[in-house]
Amino acid sequence: MIVIEPFKGKPVTDQRVEIVERKGTGHPDYLCDSMMEAVSIALSREYMKKFGAILHHNIDKGLLAAGRVEKLFGGGSVLAPMELTIGDRATFEAGGKKVPVADIAVAAAKDWLKKHMRFVDPEKHIKFRVVLAQGSEELTDIFSRSGKVLGANDTSAAVGYYPLSPTEQAVLSLERHLNSRTFKNKYPESGEDIKVMGLRTGKDLDLTVAMPLISRFIWNEKNYFERKAVFQKEMEKFVRKFETFRKVQVHFNTLDEPGRGLNGVYLSLLGTSAEDADSGQVGRGNRVNGLISLNRPMGTEAAAGKNPVSHVGKIYNVLAHRLAKKVYHAIEGAREVYVLMLSRIEIIFACRHIHALIAVLVYGRHKTFFYAFVFRQRRSCHEQHHE
């Protein structure tokens, strides 16, 4: 069943206050999500190679426990490594063929770190604890049932929307700029653990940015604040392109206090606060569109690491955003589109079993849009929809 209704309320851009957060590449939560997703991808490839299909697995339970380091101007040392716990379920054997799940999981996590964290040595700076186990018989059996399309392995809900607001675009693009290869090559002393928090009040945007400076490149407190001033100017230059706003202010490493030495600066040895300050967990980071937007409806499912062929917690989260984008571009005059989707466990992934609410904010075109959309859906899905 697909239900379509007008969106009731102000679009985000017309609301007086908007808050948007983005956790960057080196944030502990981002690290957790990314490594668990890398493990899922690696296992999926191995299953396809050995069995011609992706078998049951869900690598969506992960914890990155912070380590301990000594940071000094000009360097430092790792006193205790970080520890990554990899869970939850996987298929270890099928048709008499065994799969080295633990080895694949650790190798995938290490490979991701090597590609994205310049100063983390996965052989020295992090320990891996694999607690993956065989899945339950009932959920595993979904993969052996007849039919070309798998059944859903969970009863789950998801929500997506489109387009991104100017505030969301600003927050996302600033973090991506600071963590880009071009920026890191130009400023190797900038760390990967970047968090951008955007607060829009009316037409004014305040951006609070946290980004550590890598200790090996910073010789003393004076040098730190000199480099900080350079980054401040770089960010202020970058945000000038956001012409939607009347004023944009950037607040950078606001806990810093000159005169306090190491206690008054934000340094990192490895580029992530997981080295000694903050642990990470799957599902606490960005939603699937890369943002945490407090003015938007958000689901609670952690998409990272979930099975890409049967787990609706991943599939519907991505699909909801994609559907919202398609509807937005198909309808002239649309301001915002929200798609809410609901699955029931074991229901086959087919159009006749999708339960969705599509809420659309369109000025002056409600009836034309809704009937046209319902007609197209009836032809393609043979379903009955409600306005």
Task: Give a structural overview.
It is built from eight helices and 21 strands. With 387 residues, the protein is α/β, with parallel strands linked by helices. It has three domains: 108 residues, S-adenosylmethionine synthetase, C-terminal domain (GMP Synthetase, Chain A, domain 3), CATH 3.30.300; 124 residues, GMP Synthetase, Chain A, domain 3 (2-Layer Sandwich); 108 residues, GMP Synthetase, Chain A, domain 3 (2-Layer Sandwich), CATH 3.30.300.10. It has a five-stranded mixed β-sheet with strand order 11-19-20-1-21, covered by helices on one side. It has a five-stranded mixed β-sheet with strand order 15-13-12-2-18. Strands 3, 6, 9, 10 and 17 form a five-stranded mixed β-sheet that branches. A hairpin with a 2-residue loop joins β7 and β8. α1 crosses α2.
- Helix percent band: 25-40%
Low-pLDDT residue intervals, each spanning 5 or more residues:
349-354, 363-387
The counted number of beta strands is 21
At the fold tier of CATH, the topology name of the largest domain is: GMP Synthetase, Chain A, domain 3
Main beta sheet: strand number and arrangement? 5 strands, mixed
